[in-house]
Amino acid sequence: MNEEPNQAPVSIPEETLQKWEARGVSRRDFMKFCTATAATLALPMSFIPRIAEAIDDARLPVIWVEYQSCSGDSEAFLRANQPTAADIILDIISLEYSEVVMAASGHQAEKSKHDAMEKYKGKYLLIVEGSIPTGEHGAYCTVGGESAVEGAKKLIANAAATITVGTCASFGGIPAAAPNPTGAVSVMELVPGAAVINLPGCPVNADNLTATIVHFVTFGKLPATDRLGRPKFAYGKRIHDNCERRGHFDAGQYAEAFGDPAHRQGHCLYKLGCKGPETFHNCPTVRYNEGTSWPIMAGHGCLGCSEPNFWDTMTPFYRRLPQVPGFGIEATADKIGLGIAAGTALAFGAHGVASAFRKGDDAASDHVKKEK
Amino acid sequence: MANKIVVDPVTRIEGHLRIEVQLEDGKISNAWSSSTAFRGIETILKGRDPRDAHHFTQRFCGVCTTVHSMASIRCVEDALKIQIPDNARLIRNLIMGIQNVQDHVIHFYHLHALDWVDIVSALSADPAATSKLANSVSEWPNSGAVYFKAIQDRIKAFVGTGKLGPFANAYWGHSAYRLPPEANLMAVAHYLEALEWQKDVIKIHAILGSKNPHPQTFLVGGMAIPVDPDSQNGINADKVALIGKLLKKARRFVEQVYIPDLLAIASFYKDWAGYGGGVGNFLTYGDFPSDNSNNPDSFWMPRGVILNKDISTVLPMDQEKITESVTHSWYTYSGGDDKGLHPYDGETNAKYTGPKPPYQFLDTDAKYSWVKAPRYEDQPMEVGPLARMVIAYAKGHPEVKQVVEFVLGKLGVGPEALFSTLGRTAARGIETLLFSRKNEEWLAQLVDNMGRGILEVHNGEKWDPSTWPKEARGFGFHEAPRGALGHWVRIENGVIANFQAVVPSTWNAGPRDAKGQIGPYEAALIGTPMANPEQPLEILRTIHSFDPCLACAVHVLDGKGREIVRVKAL
């Protein structure tokens, strides 16, 4: 069957397609990328030509810095598929600085960073990975002899916008877990009021990162966010509400132990500590590694890794949540932001939970509208 | 200080590494390795549920993701005397096996290759001659002139935009680059292919463990991924087939691209078999058990110690002989900084005494790194693929011996060439090939278990903390891509009382100890000539040959940071 992209419901100018072909990107791949991006961003198909036009422009300068990080978000970026990391680096952005991939080291690397900051002042996109330690005058993390605190402040002040990748840069993450030995802070805590969009997750989902970059390139601004600075297109819905195992939860079918028959049959992981009911992220729909899987699909409960302070509020990870939304309490993203996994778990029978939830589902208490 | 050269940041690694070297008559006469960042995860672990530890420690590193999970899980299992089911052993071996393969290929092409490959030179290559070269070294199908021309055009178009991005300000045209343009173009093509390949083959982690980086499937006592041929929610025939396909893809790339490239590139840089030797002592914990006995004799990768490059004697490894020194690290010990401590008794008093940032030079006569200096019977040790291959080779391991001899034969060098920058890089390739083959055996064994109705993945007998002794301690180990990894835990009253990790890059990147003995990175740099002190290409070659991973290497502290109220889990 002939599926030429220009027969799609929206058309991209022939000239643009030819330009991409010259760069080694087939029409089909280019079209697929624009469509996938529109889908991730929840934009109507009519936006596809606009996306195509935007990324056709001169590549956006990007500076990617790492502070108290594990490079897991850089690695996640390397797993991106639509487009791939190579496509993004060669065709969409101009990656001026990235410690993981750049060829130059030492003062040559530092020069790349400073040159880009000066040359593209107010125009470059900054990506920050890892938290920033404020203790010991910044000596807990230095790059080229300069503290992360000073380096980050300069880069953030001169950027058009900053994207934080991963929970450490977004909310402090693991270095800021109690007792926060290094005084680690997030980007928003370091520079309150800066134009920042948070992409938490441990690690960030590569699809959400590429979609945010393309959104910025397309519209010249960052996507709409929730109270925590997270884009609504990726963090607007609770995992529990989109979970593929939700039916089992509603039916009162739970895995009681890892490896038991219910666990093998994919029943609800709530009793094994799943934090899906308190976590806002698009894992169930976007998944990871090109849509291959995500934690609940693979039989392990959600850790709540895109929520602030989850290392403190969601632990112990294998303890069941004391209360879940819909269970007679008002539960919104704002309230859940306070984090309340710890505490005494309510002991209730499976049947009780199920019936309570069926009631709860209809209650107006749940702020996320469900489609029936 | 006139001849002191600083490389900070060292890029194409994980974490924050700073190298300072002294240059005399164009050669490196002294070297200091420093890590300039830490987070304090071990301190954060105190008082927490030991079953959660692996989620925390996995975040030591997102590049060699999974490896700290493995070591943490094992130290808790060792403390609580838990035997894991056979399927859990095989799934762990598979996850670790593909991690080694994927991580090593990324290291070779994306972190290390640009030390040897000149991208700009590739622009002047003849695509037809490149095709001829490719066909002469491998059967890999992507080898036509049209293919190489398309790659070259893509790079030309990229360079033509005037925005070189991550390839700007590098060392192109440096006299130490020696490959002909065609070999450079072939390597650049495989750089891009490997970038595609790595994200595909690591889907095995997603299938077995939900995602990569940071899979979420390990459990104290086994694994969370169900095994059941009659369920769509676990490892069934369909998933086995997919894993099998990806393993084959992984092996083919290693056999037909990585190994031929490694041999082709190495043949132009044989003089690097004479540099970068290091301390000459090697240590492995051994790993990849072939049964559930916990007996080191059952490990596919053997355990042992070699001293002074003496491959005639492999000594037994005893973890009780490990200590960490902080004489030159930014920590203090209550019993004095000149005495090493075993990890079970490890102390965590951070004390930064370095220069206030911004600074130009570290005071390398005093304390100068956030990495401690681990020692085995007071000796610095190198860990990693070279240690594994040398110890297995010395022990007469048949698979290892065969591939080591094949590679040495192809390059026309003897076993002494292994103790070098080139040897370290070659050893990584050798073991990648071995892992890529072994993975398929482990999958076959898992399938065999499934066929016989063996579905158990988790031993939950000691899952409930009420079954635990009041006090317990355990040692967990793993042969991670970068080498011997050890975690030590003390559990008291159901929570973590102390947690210490001695990781591969701590061994390799560590600074001087109480006796002034230098660490492996430092030793490996001394004696290396530098063509241009402004362009530290030679330093990068040797440092990258170790595959540094600094976020892992730095740990343990007890700073005076901001206190936040901990929501106490009851």
Description:
The complex is a heterodimer of chains A (372) and B (570). Chain A is α/β, with parallel strands linked by helices. The two termini of chain A are 35 Å apart. Chain A has 2 domains: 58-232, Rossmann fold (3-Layer(aba) Sandwich), CATH 3.40.50.700; 236-362, Cytochrome-c3 hydrogenase, C-terminal domain (Cytochrome-c3 Hydrogenase, Chain A, domain 2, Irregular), CATH 4.10.480.10. In chain A, the strands form 3 sheets. Chain A has a 5-stranded parallel sheet with strand order 2-1-3-7-9, with helices on both faces. Chain A has helices spanning 14-22, 27-40, 48-56, 72-78, 85-92, 106-119, 148-158, 166-171, 187-190, 206-219, 232-235, 239-242, 246-250, 261-264, 283-286, 310-313, 333-336, 350-362, and strands at 60-66, 93-98, 125-129, 132-133, 142-143, 146-147, 161-165, 184-185, 196-199. With 570 residues, chain B is α+β, with helices and mostly antiparallel strands. Chain B has 17 helices and 16 strands. Chain B has helices spanning 41-45, 53-58, 67-80, 86-112, 119-122, 127-137, 145-160, 181-201, 203-209, 237-266, 385-394, 398-411, 421-451, 504-509, 520-525, 537-545, 550-553; strands at 4-7, 17-24, 27-35, 218-219, 222-223, 282-284, 287-289, 299-301, 304-306, 322-325, 331-332, 349-350, 373-376, 471-480, 483-492, 495-502. In chain B, the strands form 7 sheets. In chain B, strands 1-2-3 form a 3-stranded antiparallel sheet. Chain B has a 3-stranded antiparallel sheet with strand order 14-15-16. In chain B, a hairpin with a 2-residue loop joins β15 (483-492) and β16. Chain B is globular. Chains A and B meet through α4, α5, β2, α6 and β5 of A and α1, α4, α7, α8 and α9 of B.
